[in-house]
Amino acid sequence: MTTTTLAVLVPLLPFLGAVAGLLLGRTAPGFVRPLAVLPALAALVVAALVMARQGGGRAVDAATQLTPTGSVPVELALHIDGFAALVAVLVAFVASCVQIYSTGYLRDDPRYASYAALVSLFTSAMLLVVYSGDLIVLLVGWEVMGICSYFLVGHYWETPEARAASTKAFLVTKLGDVPFLIGLFALATDTGSFRITTILGTVATGGLDHPTVIALLLLAGVAGKSAQFPLHTWLPDAMAGPTPVSALIHAATMVAAGVYFVARLLPVFEASRAAMVVLAVMAAVTMIGSGLAALAQDDIKRVLAYSTIGQLGYMTGALAVGDRGAAVFHLLSHGAFKALLFLAAGAVIHAAGTNSLAAMSRMGHLRDRVPDAFWTMTVALLALAAIPPFSGFFSKESVLGAAEHVATGHTEHAPGAAGWTVLLAGLLAALLTAAYATRLWLLAFRGRGAEVPDHGRQPLSMTVVLWVLAVPSLALGGVAYRSLPGWFASPDLAPTLTTSVLGTGVALVGGIVTYAAWWHTTAYATRIPLGAVAAHPEGDAGQVEAEAIASHRAAYGDLSSAPDPADPGRLLLGPLFRPAAAGFHLDAVYAALFVRPVQAAARLVRFLDREVVETYVRGAAAVPRLLGAAVRRAQTGNVQTYVSALLAGTVVLAVAALLVATGA
Amino acid sequence: MHLTYPAVLSVLLFCTGVYGVLARRNAILVLMSVELMLNAVNLNLVAFDVWLSKAARETLHSGQALTLFTIAVAAAEIGIGLAIVLAVHRNSGTSDIDRLRDTAEGHGDDDPQAPTAAEKAEATA
């Protein structure tokens, strides 16, 4: 088979799996698990084959036009360069892991069939985005991912948190997608094509008339999808979905789509210096804000969600300094270790029966209950905190190195201001990342108090996946930084001495300070007893998680934070703790800026419809009604009256006819 | 005989019929008045047929043939009419046309019962 045929198969296999899963879900439940896992694995194998054939060499391009589509042609096009080949392998790899993990995690879930089919559909859409060489086809995958995310976040639709979160995720991303669509059209109008290769060719010759407008419009969509400030608010709430969904969608793939899109079209953004500066500021605010917020969250998954936002901030930061190699490198390593973090957190939540760090810190021996999750999560947290030699270190250093390169003025790709912004914010975020990673680890695994009840070991399908994912978290970075520049045709990704020392230094400082704070505050832990724990800890992991989410607000009065004086984050953040736990009240800003005006507009429309439009309708009906009432009075029911009237009418007509006929 | 005599007679008959239809209160008498009007027309048909055939313009006597048709149809018609009157009488206990006002506009403007009453009257008629 040619590389093109193989590449077509990659998105097609999970799609067919999704269709078959949806059709057979009720009639043949025995087929659901194989139909979920096998297409993902097959896609992984095929994607790996495509990667091997492409081999970082010339990009594979193929296009076919089904039908003429008016002024700007839309084509089914493939464009597989080193970025696409590698990201597709990551997507298929994480999707396979998540599908295998889900068979254990949602063992007894009644809606497993539709869940697995939606995950397959989602995987297919993401692979379509990755391989697509045409922006409209890319947009199709982009939007299919949005709707799959909506359904999967709302998987536990019995809980109000999940319902609210899925609606919010959908609406906030759509807020970015509308400018994104307009941006795509503007880009196509300027360049005369939706093909990525043609667009890049036009941009290279300076054929773009409105680079800033287009870049900013596209950035809105990217911010929505990749959860960048100010459109990141949906991601922490989306943690109401099942943990495998968080791992797949909200860590490794969908949120990476925005970054990947910018990486593909980076020359379009580089054509506008203003867009690059906006991108840099967006990345800086995202990195620091999410780091602070992550330090204050109580829900273990919300910590990871804010961490995802921060790491995506690193990627956009790398793009803002014009180094897409570093951005995609961080995307790959982050995809592996963040998926691992989420999946391990799922196992921890299952064992502890709660998703609250405050409650976990009052449980003894949690690490002994889930040894696999403990060790793999430790590896992933070290990778997250960018401690050498874990994979996160190399990818984060490549980002910081690129920023330093720009800041010291060695390149004209990006403005120096963007370089300084990203470098400083990146170093500060490295400190915060190490701090919240340490806090998460200490609170979850070094808790003291009553022993956790033993519910037996985690299913094999869940623990094996954790170890499989631990391998790239441990080793990917060290191997990849030498070989990736060849794939990406980008400058050297090796860590530079200055940023390595600085980055690792601040990370160590963050970890040690957090440890000291934890040591100081842990004495308070015994004063407040254990909070919320799921009612059915012996159920399957999905059920435990749903119950844990539902009980958090009841126990602590808030979804994101707990009144726990033993929390080291409280000591470290001081007065910032309360706003940070609430995500700096950005939701309230959105409520004031968007939600309330929309509701007011809806009330106005309702008033106009009910009181103004309907008045006309009623008036149009009332006049004939009155006339009708007048005419109805003639209907006496006396037949002889009717006949008399008929006769009189006939006589009058006859006389008239006679007069006309005689000419009188 | 001059054509005027039967013509005037038929006009008189017709007017009597019209008066009867408009003024009689008993349904059977109304039907009889209808018969009078019909026969006035028959008389006209015969009289004009004779007059035209005398002028030798018309030799088929289609007027007289048509009269025979009309008489046959009228017999059928009066049969149906009497049956209807009988049914109305059984239903409402009267054949007084002034009292058979089921088709009148209802007492309330939007009375939902009014149309059903009208329908009932139609069904019985």
UniProtKB/TrEMBL annotation, chain A:
- Which keywords, in A-to-Z order, does the entry hold? Membrane, Oxidoreductase, Transmembrane, Transmembrane helix
- Which residue ranges run through the membrane? 6-24, 36-56, 76-100, 112-130, 136-157, 169-187, 199-224, 245-263, 275-296, 303-321, 327-352, 373-394, 414-438, 459-481, 501-519, 642-661
UniProt KW Transmembrane keyword: yes
In what way does this protein cross or attach to the membrane?
Multi-pass membrane protein
Under Enzyme Commission nomenclature, its number is 1.6.5.-
Q: Which Pfam families match?
A: Proton_antipo_M, Proton_antipo_N
Residue span(s) of domain NADH:quinone oxidoreductase/Mrp antiporter transmembrane: 132-403
Gene Ontology MF terms = oxidoreductase activity
Where does the UniProt annotation locate this protein?
Answer: Endomembrane system; Membrane
Q: Is ATP-binding there in the keyword field?
A: no
Name the domain of life.
Bacteria
Broad class of the protein's primary localization: membrane
Q: Which GO terms describe its cellular component?
A: endomembrane system; membrane
Which protein is depicted? NADH-quinone oxidoreductase subunit L
Organism annotation: Streptomyces doudnae
TrEMBL record, chain B:
Its localization reads: Cell membrane; Membrane
Q: Which UniProt keywords apply?
A: Cell membrane, Membrane, NAD, Oxidoreductase, Quinone, Translocase, Transmembrane, Transmembrane helix, Transport
Superkingdom in the source lineage: Bacteria
What single Pfam family name could you report for this chain, choosing any that match?
Oxidored_q2
Which molecular function GO terms apply here? Answer: NADH dehydrogenase (quinone) (non-electrogenic) activity; quinone binding
- Entry's InterPro entries? NADH_UbQ_OxRdtase_chain4L/K, NUOK/Mnh_C1-like
Q: Which residues cross the membrane?
A: 6-22, 29-48, 68-89
Q: Quote the EC number.
A: 7.1.1.-
The reaction(s) annotated as catalysed by this protein in its Swiss-Prot or TrEMBL entry are: a quinone + NADH + 5 H(+)(in) = a quinol + NAD(+) + 4 H(+)(out)
**One cellular component GO annotation, for this chain's record?**
plasma membrane
Composition-biased stretches (Basic and acidic residues): 98-110
Which region ranges are annotated with the description Disordered? Answer: 98-125
Stored PANTHER family: NADH-UBIQUINONE OXIDOREDUCTASE CHAIN 4L, NADH-UBIQUINONE OXIDOREDUCTASE SUBUNIT ND4L
Its job: NDH-1 shuttles electrons from NADH, via FMN and iron-sulfur (Fe-S) centers, to quinones in the respiratory chain. The immediate electron acceptor for the enzyme in this species is believed to be a menaquinone. Couples the redox reaction to proton translocation (for every two electrons transferred, four hydrogen ions are translocated across the cytoplasmic membrane), and thus conserves the redox energy in a proton gradient.
Subunit structure of this entry? NDH-1 is composed of 14 different subunits. Subunits NuoA, H, J, K, L, M, N constitute the membrane sector of the complex.
Could you say which protein family the record assigns here?
A: Belongs to the complex I subunit 4L family.
Name of the featured protein? NADH-quinone oxidoreductase subunit K
The gene from which this protein is expressed is nuoK
